[in-house]
Amino acid sequence: MRRNALAMATAFAVCTAAATVFAQSPTDVEKSPQSRDLPQYTTSGELVLPKNYRNWVYVGSPLTPNALNDGQAHFPEYHNVYIEPGSYAIYKKTGVFPEQTMFYKELQLTLKPEENSDGSRTEPSGRGYFPGALAGAEVSIKDSKRFAASGGWGYFEFGHSEPKLASTAVRAKQECAFCHIKSAKRDLVWTQFYRILDEVPIPQGGKG
């Protein structure tokens, strides 16, 4: 009798474990919320430089070199842009950037020395512009309450040189936000320059 009872208990435990595995099917796992890397601030309110942005979702790398802008480009570096993965997952599903969305803009100079008058150089792949040394970073964060004065987004500059600042204060509206408010396509984000963001449908009756 004891052996039969033990066998039945073992079978029940196995069935229970199998049911648990079945309950956590891939479909359900896909539906579970993804953890998010949220902004961290110092006690004085400065944003702490995100450390693991290289694990984020890569968005794109616009470039407006000095040589094509009379030597005075506002943004002469490659802008290697990343979005925090949890925020991207929500945006991709809903078409709306959620609160606490973070974009990390890695600044990277063109490869030197420049060989041609337009700032380009020739490499084995041909003539063009090629990424060189890193040169600082910028971060933008969506927080409608904290950054209400600048359209709901805060913009932070961690220097245009290396090493980057460990933390920094939010920029004034007239320094960064005004340009996004005026010309960015979707919720103060330049989605027109980033295909993986721009191709996400805008929710019906919304602005994205």
Please give a quick description of this structure.
The chain is α+β, with helices and mostly antiparallel strands. It has 5 helices and 9 strands.
Please tell me about this protein's structure:
- With 208 residues, this protein is α+β, with helices and mostly antiparallel strands.
- It has two domains: 1-32; 34-198, Chalcone isomerase (3-Layer(bba) Sandwich), CATH 3.50.70.
- The chain is 24% helix and 22% strand.
- A five-stranded antiparallel β-sheet has the order 2-3-4-7-8. A two-stranded antiparallel sheet has the order 1-9.
- Strand 5 (121-123) and strand 6 form a beta hairpin.
- The longest helix is centred in the N-terminal third of the chain and has 22 residues, at 2-23.
- The chain is globular, with a radius of gyration of 24 Å.
Keywords:
2 domains, five-stranded antiparallel sheet, two-stranded antiparallel sheet, 208 residues, 5 helices, alpha+beta, globular, disordered N terminus, Chalcone isomerase
Write the layout of secondary structure elements.
Blueprint: H1 2-23, H2 26-31, E1 47-48, E2 57-60, E3 78-83, H3 85-94, E4 102-110, E5 121-123, E6 126-128, E7 131-142, E8 153-157, E9 167-168, H4 177-183, H5 195-198
Antiparallel strand pairs: 1-9, 2-3, 3-4, 4-7, 5-6, 7-8
Q: What percent of the residues sit in helical stretches (DSSP H or I)?
A: 10-25%
Q: How is the biggest beta sheet arranged? A: 5 strands, antiparallel
Strand order of the largest sheet: 2-3-4-7-8
Principal-axis shape: globular
Mean pLDDT: 86
Outline the low-pLDDT stretches.
1-32
